[in-house]
Amino acid sequence: MLTKDEIWNALEAVKDPEIPAISVVELGIVRDVAVEDEGVTVTITPTFSGCPALTVMANDIKAKLREEGVERVAVQTVLAPAWSSDWISAEGKRKLKAFGLAPPRQHGGDIVMTFFDVVACPRCDSKNTTLQNSFGSTLCRAIWTCNDCQETFEQFKPI
Ligand SMILES: [Zn+2]
């Protein structure tokens, strides 16, 4: 049986189905890992309760841990407290930016303010940007245009 740390490490290899640049651990979706004689239970909180990627993620987690030799894996979903973009690790935010997605800033619960914040272009770091559409390709993204390099980019919205 793997130790708890080894399981956390293995989960670093499980990528978010929508943003393959970032792992489910970096995204802050994995809340807890419990190792017991009967098997391993991984507790996750999806970014959105109706997130269609949830089943894919749960299956990916099970497949990865089985690959590591864990025979019995359960994935449990917990919806409260709701997932917050504050749970994305610093490394995760760096990877979002490298992927071309403007990372959400740390908001500490003060979300209303952040919607009016200036979002920096992930390509050239310019803050001269304009919000085009508050809903991008998924509910959790907004579309912006950079007025300096003309790049159209998506922002991972702070939630
Ligand atoms: Zn730019």
Explain the overall architecture:
By secondary structure, this protein is α/β, with parallel strands linked by helices. The protein folds into two domains: 4-77, GMP Synthetase, Chain A, domain 3 (2-Layer Sandwich); 97-156, no CATH class. Helices cover 23% and strands 23% of the residues. The strands form two sheets. Strands 4-7-6-5 form a four-stranded mixed β-sheet. The radius of gyration is 17 Å and the shape is elongated. The model has no long low-confidence stretch (mean pLDDT 89). Bound molecules: zinc ion. Residues 121, 123-124, 126, 146, 148-149, 151 line the site of zinc ion.
Q: Any ligands, ions or cofactors bound here, and which?
A: zinc ion
Query: Which residue ranges are poorly predicted, with pLDDT under 50 across at least 5 consecutive positions?
Result: none
Helix/sheet category: alpha/beta
Summarize the helix and strand pattern as letters.
HEEHEHEHEEE
| Number of β-strand runs | 7
Topology, element by element:
Elements: H1 4-11, E1 30-36, E2 39-44, H2 53-67, E3 73-77, H3 90-98, E4 101-102, H4 111-114, E5 129-133, E6 141-146, E7 152-156
Parallel strand pairs: 2-3, 4-7
Antiparallel strand pairs: 1-2, 5-6, 6-7
Zinc ion binds at residues 121, 123-124, 126, 146, 148-149, 151.
Question: Concise description?
Answer:
The protein has 159 residues and is of the alpha/beta class. The chain contains 4 helices and 7 strands, in the order H-E-E-H-E-H-E-H-E-E-E. The strands form 2 sheets. It has a 4-stranded mixed sheet with strand order 4-7-6-5. The chain has a 3-stranded mixed sheet with strand order 1-2-3, with helices on one face.
